[in-house]
Amino acid sequence: MSTLEIRDLHVTVDTEQGTKEILRGVTLTINSGETHAIMGPNGSGKSTLAYSIAGHPKYTITSGTVTLDGEDVLEMSVDERARAGLFLAMQYPVEVPGVTVSNFLRTAKTAIDGEAPKLRTWVKDLKQSMADLKMDPAVSDRGVNEGFSGGEKKRHEILQMELLKPKIAILDETDSGLDVDALRIVSEGVNRAKEATGSGVLLITHYTRILRYIKPDFVHVFVDGRIAEQGGPELADRLEAEGYDRFQAAPAAAT
Ligand code: ADP
Ligand code: MG
Ligand code: MG
Fold first, then answer.
1. Each residue of 221-249: pLDDT tens digit?
2. Ligand 3 mean position to 173 CA, how many Å?
3. Partner residues linked to 227 by β-bridges
4. Are residues 182 and 154 in contact, defined by beta-carbon separation less than 8 angstroms?
5. What residue ranges in 73-158 does DSSP mark as E strands?
6. pLDDT at 250 over 60
7. How much distance in Å is there from the Cα of 143 to the middle of ligand 1?
8. What are the residues whose beta carbon lies below 5 Å from ligand 2 (ion)?
9. Residue 253: its pLDDT value, please?
10. Cα 221 vs. chain centroid, distance in angstroms?
């Protein structure tokens, strides 16, 4: 049983207009086996939360804490975060020409487990997971994300989650740009990985449609750098019907 605990997190980013506070006190606890959906309008700070937990250098934590089973995540290097069992889907979306998917995944698995996986079981697991995700087996010999379509990138993210077996997985807009078939395949992959590993999942999304396939236990509505409302799956249904309007501040009067 693992717990990711985010306490009163404040994060700023330096922009051309100066330093801007994006996260304004986020508190959230994710346990193994739980699925939390973070939903919210564009620009509300959802990706900033994911990048901050990932350790992206652009984001400055000004106060608050993030711990994984009591260990200070914010003190860890990006590699250490992965070894501790955090999986951040946006950590690997860059193209890595010349490094094949198969080598990349085996290297990541070795780094995280502290030992190389046995070749025979590894090849079998990789083939099985790729088949489950309906990925062309030839993709394993291609450069990471090199010329990947949007759908292939998303499948590759979930392939990583299935093989790396994280304690907590953070998936940012895994649904964006997927057609209905791809959305279902990717969602089923997340559900399989969750079931096999017992991972806790933080699923960040703007739209409710992925929640038809990945059932959240908790829904958090993110507005203006904070959680504005929390509830169960019924909150997602309400958002689907009503949108985010009731959470948005009325526009300031013109002066
Ligand atoms: P969301 O994922 O909810 O759409 P983001 O976290 O991407 O929101 O962005 C929140 C706000 O922070 C936006 O106003 C965005 O312009 C700003 N922001 C985020 N990252 C950066 C950055 N690296 N540089 C400048 N501004 C940023
Ligand atoms: Mg935002
Ligand atoms: Mg975003």
1. 999 999 999 999 999 999 999 999 888 76
2. 7
3. 222
4. yes
5. 86-88, 96-100, 143-144
6. no
7. 29
8. 43-45
9. 58
10. 16
Does pLDDT of 91 surpass 50? no
| Whether the predicted pLDDT of 255 surpasses 60 | no
- The average confidence (pLDDT) of the chain is 92
Averaged over 169-183, what is the pLDDT? 90
From 12, 22, 44, 58, the mutation candidate for ligand 1 (largest count of ligand atoms within 8 A of CB) is 22
Other CB atoms closer than 10 Å to residue 152's CB: what's the count?
19
How deeply is 65 buried, as exposed, middle or buried, from its count of CB atoms within 10 A (0-12, 13-18, 19+)?
middle
Ligand 3 midpoint to CA 246 (Å):
20
Kindly give the number of the ligand 1 atom that is closest to the alpha carbon of 50. 6
Quote the ligand 1 centre to 223 CA distance (angstroms).
12
Determine if ligand 1 sits within 6 Å of the CB of residue 145.
no
How far, in Å, CA of 185 to CA of 42, rounded? 25
More confident position, 29 or 54: 29
Question: In Å, how far are 12, 25, 30, 167, 236 from 59, measured between CA atoms?
Answer: 6, 14, 22, 23, 29
- Residue 22 Cα: closest atom of ligand 1: 12
Residue nearest to atom 11 of ligand 1 (CA): 43
Q: Is the CB of 2 under 6 A from ligand 1?
A: no
The interface predicted TM-score of the complex, written ipTM, equals 0.95
| Fold of the domain spanning 3-247 | Rossmann fold (3.40.50)
CB 221 within 8 A of CB 56: no
Q: What is the pLDDT of residue 251?
A: 58
Give the distance (Å) from ligand 2 centre to CA of residue 51.
Answer: 11
CA 250 to chain centre: 31
- What is residue 92's predicted lDDT score, i.e. its pLDDT? 47
